[in-house]
Amino acid sequence: MKINKNYQELSRDYLFSEVARRVAIFQEGHPEARVIRLGIGDVTQPICPVVMDAMKQAAEDETHPETFHGYGPEQGYDFLREELRKYYETFGVKLTDKEIFVSDGAKSDLGNFLDLLDRDNTVLVPDPVYPVYRDTNVMDGRRILYMRADRDNAFLPMPDPEQKVDVIYLCSPNNPTGAAYTRDQLAEWVAYANQQHAVILFDAAYESFIQDAEVPHSIFEIPGARTCAVEFCSLSKTAGFTGIRCGYTVVSEELVRDGMSLRDMWLRRQTTKFNGVSYPVQRAAAAVFSHEGQEGCAKNRRVYQENARVISETLYQLGIWHVGGKNSPYIWMECPEGMTSWDFFDDLLRRAQVVGTPGSGFGQNGEGFFRLTAFGTPEGTREAMERLARCYGKER
Questions:
Q1: pLDDT digits (tens, 9 = 90+) for 101-146
Q2: Do both 298 and 264 map to the same domain?
Q3: Rounded to the nearest 5°, which phi and psi values hold at 96?
Q4: DSSP assigned state of 320
Q5: Average pLDDT in the 317-334 region?
Q6: Number of domains in the chain
Q7: What pTM did the predictor assign?
Q8: What is the domain-level CATH number for residue 17?
């Protein structure tokens, strides 16, 4: 038997595992410390009641012969896909139900979609980057090119017309940086992809946090995107589904390469390798898009948006450069006092008992930067910023 030796090319430790290891060591030596975690992007606000009520009712349905559901359609129940289709209409995007695929989360589909793509394709990813984009392609042995994201371009790299690529990863609003592409900027990417005959894998997991009108919620708001883009989205942050697991992927019927429909290929892949999302979870997901569900999710989201404002305001007062926060739950800050990313991680943990994520873990261009999330509690976020201000204020 032969194994996939591409795994030898992966970083030995997953970024968040190393974060957890260092925090555990610190807490073992300082059991009295009250550590505030603003690192991993898990939510803290509970599922809104109407969504959970729908899930409970669906679970109750499974106990009665007349309402019992066994295997469901791999691409999702019609009732949920119809709600998603109507949701996209609020952005001015018209989809057919056949173009919408329900999944257990954007992370899974972002990796699984590579089943459709030849390993000889050249992949373009931003640096810094959400590790899943890079690592799933390393696992398959693809050639990866990196586009530089830095302070000079506000961590929003744009296409190089002379560069030939086949697959492009974009995330807006971005993880880890929180930066968001404008409509005009995404139009440049769509034109480039169509000219290159490339495919954009567009991660829209944080679209519900967008507040600026010039920032699109979906790449399909951009003319020409239907012939070059696939969109991945998630209810993890939109509705607090990090533990429940539900997302959706949109594959346009107009997306054709080498005479083959990628929508048809994805359907074939999913019906072969995926058994679908459970009926109770899909009923809960459908309730997210009800009027009451949207109000409840927006209420929770406002908590995170206020947390982001508090973080951003504190950094402004300290004179620390940063992006993100307004259209995103992530704030990407420059490490103070010229520290490296991991040095600042250790210093912040030691002196303030606050945990964030070192930017270098997201790529070479993340060195010297640091990610904070707005998913903490309001009380914890405010206290964390008070501690940060005491430790890194100019009066030191």
A1: 999 999 999 999 999 999 999 999 999 999 999 999 999 999 999 9
A2: no
A3: -100, 155
A4: -
A5: 96
A6: 2
A7: 0.96
A8: 3.90.1150.10
